[in-house]
Amino acid sequence: MKMVNWSDIHAKRQRSVFALFLRIISLLYGVAVELRLIAYRIGLLSIKSLPTYVVSIGNITTGGTGKTPLVATVAEWAHKSGFRVGILSRGYKGQRSHNTVVVSDGKKVLASVDEAGDEPFLLARRLRSVPVLISKKRHRIGQLALRLFDSELLLLDDGYQHLSLHRDLNVLLLDAKKPFGSRSLLPLGPLREPVEQIKRADLIIITRCTVEYPGDDLADFLQRNFPGRPIFRAGHFPDHVISPLVGKAHPPGILSGRKVVAFAGLANPDDFLEMLKGLGAHIIHFKAFSDHHRFTKDEIEELASWRKRSDGDFLLTTEKDWVRIDGKIGVDLDIAILTIKIRILSGSDTFFDIIKQGILRSDMKK
Prior knowledge:
The chain is of the alpha/beta class. The protein has 10 helices and 13 strands. The chain has 2 domains: 53-236 and 344-365, P-loop containing nucleotide triphosphate hydrolases (Rossmann fold), CATH 3.40.50; 237-341, Rossmann fold (3-Layer(aba) Sandwich).
């Protein structure tokens, strides 16, 4: 006679109840999203404008599609092209994100990572000549950017759902490998809003394109269901391996054949891991943390001990994670970071010309 495993039955029941709970919450979330969209559409909630060219860069899923790296790329292009550019962010998980904070005035960084949040702080430190401001009220910080810096271009980092501010160009990023996840709304799936809301995009960029995932099927889907929108493709590429505490930088090829202990607190840490493997690194230990994880000294020392015990060549993390570690450890731990750039794979001149022409038209209206 076969014995009944009551613990397995109980576990399955618990999973079923939890799945049902998530479905109910996801349904209620979807209703709330739809009501919000309707409220903006019929004018119950107001949309404010700024007298300058505003570009939003965002997505419809949780997780990293490359929003912040693309904001940095566009900001660098704009500055080199002679345009006055500013970045507006909500400052996710920053202690002062509910206030209006100038993280950088384009000359120096004025706020800490704890005050600003990791992504605005990273942008401020990487883009020394570009002002970065944070607030949940982006119209307010947009006005401040105009008053202080006379910005000709304002970039909204993660702005697709921030409907209260009018944008002249709405750029949507979709991941080539997993653009919609399970196609379920939060918290059951990764969608912030239904797939049909792609229709709000003026321009679409398929990111994380690789030889294995070129984005062809996704491009076909977009052309069939959302015609008339320019579609570009972009890839994430390793840039440098930097030892920030000792001031050394190397090309990413230095990781080939090296023993590496790596860690990341990202929405999709596996993407970082796969990039390291693609560079030929021998991963002897990898630790994934939650997105925006606040690292402790003990956690870093534990990872450093893994490297020491295994005679590893590198203790490696991401640039975004490093800003949450800097100042907490000594030089003896010798952490290295892999910096990553996003690059438009084809039609980059067209992409930047769309933004350039928009800025020039906006300037003519003033």
